[in-house]
Amino acid sequence: MDSSEQSTTRSKQKSRKFLKSLIRKQPRDLLLVIGTGVSAAVAPGIPALCSWRGCIEAVIEAAEQLEVLHPGDVAEFRKKVIKDRDLLVVAHDLIRKMSPRTGDTKPNFFQDCLMEVFDNLEQHIQNPVVLQSILRLMERGTMVLTTNYDNLLEIFGQQQGKPMESLDLKDKDKVLQWARGHTKYGVLHIHGLYTDPCGMVLDPSGYKDVTQDPEVMEVLQNLYRSKSFLFLGCGETLRDQIFQALFLYTVKNKVDLEHYMLVLKENEDHFFKLQADMLLHGIKVVSYGHCFKQFPEYVQDLTAQICKQRSPDADRVDSTTLLGTSCVDCAKRKLGENGTDSPKKIKQSDNAGASFLSCASSQLDPAPTKVEPQQRSCFNLSEMTFGIAVTVSCL
Q: What is the pTM of this model?
């Protein structure tokens, strides 16, 4: 890129606009839904992380090498990956093929194939910008769930000294703690994690204990009603059967909700149709740019904008805050000036508020607001939602 192109890019970045309704959200009011686009941006060297198609192809390759799938089945699944539009169905068929005929998904060879595909993930982290942004939001109370089998976020977070915890839907108590906001650095893997052979499921039938538990379902669905979900790198998440079972089937009046999805605007007609369609489900579709390379910088800049917002808690003052201490100091000085050695206990009265404000205004100047430099980010996706077939992009 020559200097003129760089100048043009910088100019476009400076003029980038964000939805005020999004950047004015408090981090604790957001819930990030992480899809394959995040993994693709972080570790582009692993094709299996880049898309559902890439993941399925890699699993088929591993199954062939490990000799856990009949050669005829290998050939058949490779044809399906090329021809079938509904890759989630292909993935479901593949996991069933490598599972016991009883229908039980454990034990099965699918986990072994994923372990082969995702071996030594930490060595493949090339661009952690998106992960840094996610951790920054988590520090401020943002919750995170993912449809991914990988644990790139947890690996990176642990490298940064964060007490990351991977969760799946098999542990009811931990799910409830996470859903109630008690697991600050917890990442809920709704499909399970490749490192845990007992927790990985593609079919909702594997989570009957969860979907038929009123307490768990109410807590999870309340998140969809009370939080603003921000979909990052999500291609077919809204068509995902498990995601639908957990959050969408029984949540009424979705048009009244306010969720957000970052997508690639590759085709304007498709993009604006998707925008209109998704509003019916309470989701605002936002473009991060015209190429996938813009995704990491867009996410970084969006995070900076959100984190600039002043928390409502910052305006709450009690006797333990700096303002309260300053007022006590004022009282002590006044008593000292009047020749009193020790202050008497201050009686609560109607004048206390006025004295408090008077002391505060005389002792403190407002702290300058730190404005962080804007940086850019981006992401890519192929979007198929609720039976609406709208291809935005293929990873």
A: 0.72
